Amino acid sequence: MPETNTIIGETILIRGNLQGDEDLTVRGRVEGTINLKRTLIIEQSGVVKAEVSVNNAVISGVVVGNVTASDSVEITQSGRMVGDIHAPRVIIVEGAKFKGRVDMGELPQSRAVETPAARKVFAPVKSAPQPVRPQAAPTRAAPPPPASKAALKEEDETKIVPARKKIVVKKR
Amino acid sequence: MANVIGSTIIIEGEISGDEDLIIQGTVKGKIALKESLIVERSGVVEADIDTRNVEISGQVTGNIHSSERVEIKSEGRMTGDIKAPRILIADGAKFKGNVDME
Amino acid sequence: MALEPPGVIGKGISIKGNLSGEGDLIIEGTVEGQISLKNHLTIEETGVVRADIEAERLTIKGEMNGNISASDRVAVLANAKVVGDIKAPVVVIEDGAGFRGSIDMEVPLPEDL
Question: Where are the domains of chain A?
């Protein structure tokens, strides 16, 4: 990553309000508030104890405080954060440590809605005995997903298939 | 590698540290460094300054206490008191305040 | 240790109730209730889960609404939509994932913070 012009070195401590219209790299310590219309980069040695409001934040050091970003927040492998994140894009990489809330704003409407048909299956029926174990309902539980996704294949009755190739989660 | 406070940056508060610092933006408050402070042409500082060296090409309002030297360059403008063993005020610089070379 | 193939809850299946077990599980359908697994749970892209989940590892590619407690790791992949609280030692959120809720990992901080 090309170096930003504004650099706060390892031994520098700033206590107060910091604002600006350029990218900023923190290798030292900032306590207070940070308001940038650009990107805040907190390097591994950086410690920020502040309320942060930026376009982007890349956190490889320590942040204690809330971060609001108009674009993205990324906590990298060496990043440690305690606080809330408000940003449309949030990336938390393997190795990062985070504790707090994440709010990406309104998530798109959920695909599956409880259809009246599905609910009916579980309405108590006096004549039939109550099932001990939960039963699989062989109905189409969800309405077709939005056009962007491939249409669900119509299946009459699906059985739980025991034999299947094991899915391997790729490690980064 | 020096620390740089860029021209669009405004800091209100205290800055301290063990490294050189170049100010191209605005700082209001206090600056205490074990090394040198350079206020570049676009820099505006309203603060009391306590550093080893100070070099001013921008605007400074506040008192300076330096253990080595203070230099106000020809574009520099300063209002405040200077306390330092060595002082250099270039031709063209503007300065208003007291000077104490101990 | 004999590796059992994972269970699969297919796309057309909808379950309401409690799921528990020791094997890996892949959910492609809909589950509402509570899930407690001793191994790896994968919610595929078509999966919709409204449940509190307790598992060792959890990989989410679909939709999930509920609280998660994992002893090892939770990964929320791109295009997933998750609403709920996650408590796990490792939580990974990919670029493009949708998430709203809290995350609790053990965060080692310097002493003075």
Answer: 6-103
